Amino acid sequence: MAQPDTKKIFFENLSGAGKAIAVLTSGGDAQGMNAAVRAVVRMGLYVGAKVYFIHEGYQGMVDGGENIEEASWESVSSMLQVGGTVIGSARCKEFRNHEGRLKAAHNLVLQGITNLCVIGGDGSLTGANLFREEWSGLLTELVEQGLIEADAVQKYSALHIVGMVGSIDNDFCGTDMTIGTDSALHRIIEVVDAIMTTAQSHQRTFVLEVMGRHCGYLALVSALACGADWVLIPEMPPEDGWEDKMCKKLSATRSRGTRLNIIIVAEGAIDRHGTPITSGIVKDLVVKCLGFDTRVTILGHVQRGGTPSAFDRILASRMGVEAVLALLETTANTPACVVSLRGNQSVRLPLMECVQMTQEVQRAMDGKRFEEAVKLRGRSFENNLRTYKLLAHRKPESELPVSNFNVAVLNVGAPAAGMNAAVRSAVRVGISEGHKMFAVSDGFEGFYKGQIREVKWADVGGWTGQGGSLLGTKRTLPAKHVEKIAEQMRMNNINALLIVGGFEAFLSLLELITARGKYEEFCVPMVMVPATVSNNVPGSDLSIGADTALNAITTTCDRIKQSASGTKRRVFIIETMGGYCGYLASVGGLAAGADAAYIYEEPFDIKDLQANVEHLTEKMKTSIQRGLVLRNENCNENYTTDFIYQLYSEEGKGVFDSRKNVLGHMQQGGAPSPFDRNFGTKISAKAMQWVTKKLTETFRKGRVFANMEDSCCLLGMRRRALVFQPVVQLKDETDFVHRIPKEQWWLKLRPLMKILAKYKTSYDVSDSGQLEHVIRNRPKESDASVAM
C-alpha cells in the first residue's frame, strides 16, 4: 500500500458547525442534478452544517419565503434515480438587476446563509460570481434601508460560492464531463439503436437532429458511438462543397452492401459562412442528389428526460461532496470555484477562468476561427473529433501508406460490452496506417486452430453498438498451445498482436513474453486493451465493459426498489459479479444508493454484519421504506448471499422483511453504453497507433524483431491519462491469486457511499481537488489520446 502522506487530512478534522449552506439548481435541467443535491445535503448535514433548499433557482432566492426551506436527511431520500431537478429550476430576469440581487441577499441573511452551492450552466455560475462580488455592498445597502442590523455586515461578511456544472451539452470549458451529458448520450444512443433496425428493414437514410445550439459535443460523441456516416457540428463546419462529398460518402457506403445511412446534425450546425444547416436541408439534399428514402427524427427534450445514468449519479455524488469540502475550506480570499472530474480525479477550477474560456469559444466561432474553437473546447473534444474523422472517412487506396505489416486482433477472456467497438477501431485505424488486418476467432483457442482471416474496412461496419464479442472469445491461455500458435504466426506472417480482453489477456501476454526465448515468432510488438466487466486489470483504472455493467446493476436496483413501493418496509440483498474485485458492488452501490456493499478488499465479520443490520433497522423505523445491500460474489466464502439474506430476515423481524436477487450474467449482456463505445473506440485507436510506431522502430534487415520489455505493453487509464506500461513491470502490482490489482483507486469512494448512507466514518480528503488553473496552451498530443 502507499506510504502515509504527511499532508493527509481526515474528514473529521473539517467541521461545518455554525455554517449554513444553500443549494439551488438554475437554468436548464439535467439528469443527475438530484444526485448532486442529495450529496450536498447529506454531506452538509454530516459535517454539522445547516443545509437549505432554494426552490426554483434564483427566482426562489429573490422571492424568499417558502422557497428557502431547511433540508433534512429524509427530504433527499428516493431522489437519486429521478431525472430533472426536484427542487425546481427557473430562469430569473429579476436576479439580473441590482434590485433583484438585493432582495436575494436579504433573504439569505434572514436565514444566516453565507455558503452557496449553485448547480447550473455558465450563465447561472456567472450570476453567482457577480452576486458574490457585490455581497458586501448589498449588505451595506440593506443596513441603510433598515432591513438588517449593522452587526450582520460583520457576521455575514463574505459569501462563498462553489459551482457544479449541470448541462447536457457539455459546453463548459475546463471540465471533461458536465452533469447530465452521459445520460443525454444514453437517450440519443437508445434512439439511434432503435432507428437502425427499421432503417435496415427499408434501406432508409435517417437524419437525426440532437441538442447543441452552440456546442456539438452530443452530436460528435453520439456519431462516434454509433458509427454515423456524417456529422455536422457548429465548432467545425464542413468545407465548401460538403454536399457533394457527403452524398459520395453515402453512395459509397451503400455500394458496399450497407442497407442504411445515419447522419447526425447538431441543432446549431452551420456552414463556413455561418448559414444554418438544418436536418430538413440535409434530408432534401439526400433525396434530391441520391433519391434515397430519407426520414428526419428530431430528438428534442427527450434528451433531457429519463433517469440519470450510473456515470452521472457517481459524477454528481462525488462533485456534491467535493463542493461541501470546498465550502468548508474556503476563506474570504478564495475565488469562486467549480468542482469537476478530470479522468477519475477531482479538480477545482476558478469559476471565472472557465466562464471566460467558454465565452472565448463562442467568440472564436463568431469570428470563423473554427480550429481555435475546437482547441478551446478542450482535449476531450479535440480527440473525439480526430478519432471520428479517422474512423468514419476511408481514404482511397491510392492515398494509403504501404507498410507490408500484418497485424492480428483477438479477444481473450469473458465477453464485455464495447469489445466490438474496440475491434472496429483497431481494424480501421490499422488499415488507415497501411497494415493488413487479421481477425482471430475464439481467442487463443482459435489462434492455434488457425481460425485467422483477413478483415477489411467494411467487415466491421455496424459493430460499434453490438454487445458481446463478434469475433468470439475464450478464456484459453496460450502456454499449452504455444508451439501451434507460433506456427500460425509464422504461416500468416503476423508482425504484431492487439489483444482486447480482461485478466486472461494480461496473463496471456506474460506467457507470450516468456515464450520469446524459445520462439522468435513472439518477438513482435504486442499490446493489450483492457476489457472486462470486473474492472480488475492491473495498470488501468477503467476497463471497457465496466460502465455498461454498472448501468445494468443500477437500472436493476432501481426496478427492484420500485417493486416494494407502497408495500411494507423491505431490504433487498443483491449479488453482483466481479470475481474477487469489488468494483461493481462498491461503485454500483454508490450509483444505486445502497446502504452497504460487502467486498473482498474490505474484510468484514459477524460484528460488522450485525452493526449494518442494526443501522438499517434504525433507519427503517424513522425514515426510509426500502433498503439495498450489495454483495460481491466472492467477498467471503462463509458469509454467502444466502447467509446474509437469512441474517437480515431474522434480525429485521417486526421492522422489515428481506428479499434476495442474484444479477448474474445480465451484467455482461446488452448493448454497450455510450461511455464504453467511446472509450473502446479511442483507447483501441491509440493502441493501434502505438503498434505502428513500434513496427517502424523494430523493423530491421527485412523483418520485425522486438524483444525488449517495452515492446509488450498494456494500455491503461491512470488518473487523467492513457499510459503504455510494460506488462512485466505490472507483475509487482498484481495479486495473482485473487486476480486483482494490489491497489485500487475506487476504494477511496467507499467512505463516500457510507456517509451518504448515514454511517459515521473517516473520509480521507488528501485526494480531494486542489484549486488549479485552466490550461489554455497544451503540447500537441497523438491523434487518439483520451480524456474521459
From TrEMBL:
One of its GO terms (cellular component) is cytoplasm. Allosterically activated by ADP, AMP, or fructose 2,6-bisphosphate, and allosterically inhibited by ATP or citrate. Its EC number is 2.7.1.11. It catalyses: beta-D-fructose 6-phosphate + ATP = beta-D-fructose 1,6-bisphosphate + ADP + H(+). The keyword Phosphoprotein applies. It is found in: Cytoplasm. Coiled coil: none annotated. Transmembrane segments: none annotated. The lineage of its organism: Eukaryota, Metazoa, Chordata, Craniata, Vertebrata. Beta-D-fructose 2,6-bisphosphate binds at residues 475, 532-536, 570, 577-579, 633, 659, 665-668, 739. InterPro entries: 6-Pfructokinase_euk (IPR009161), ATP_PFK (IPR022953), PFK_vert-type (IPR041914), Phosphofructokinase_CS (IPR015912), Phosphofructokinase_dom (IPR000023), PKF_sf (IPR035966). Residues 1-393 are annotated as: N-terminal catalytic PFK domain 1. Residues 406-788 are annotated as: C-terminal regulatory PFK domain 2. The active site is at residue 169. Belongs to the phosphofructokinase type A (PFKA) family. ATP-dependent PFK group I subfamily. Eukaryotic two domain clade 'E' sub-subfamily. Pathway: Carbohydrate degradation; glycolysis; D-glyceraldehyde 3-phosphate and glycerone phosphate from D-glucose: step 3/4. It comes from Pagothenia borchgrevinki (Bald rockcod). Homo- and heterotetramers. Mg(2+) binds at residue 122. NCBIfam families: 6PF1K_euk (TIGR02478). This is ATP-dependent 6-phosphofructokinase. Catalyzes the phosphorylation of D-fructose 6-phosphate to fructose 1,6-bisphosphate by ATP, the first committing step of glycolysis.
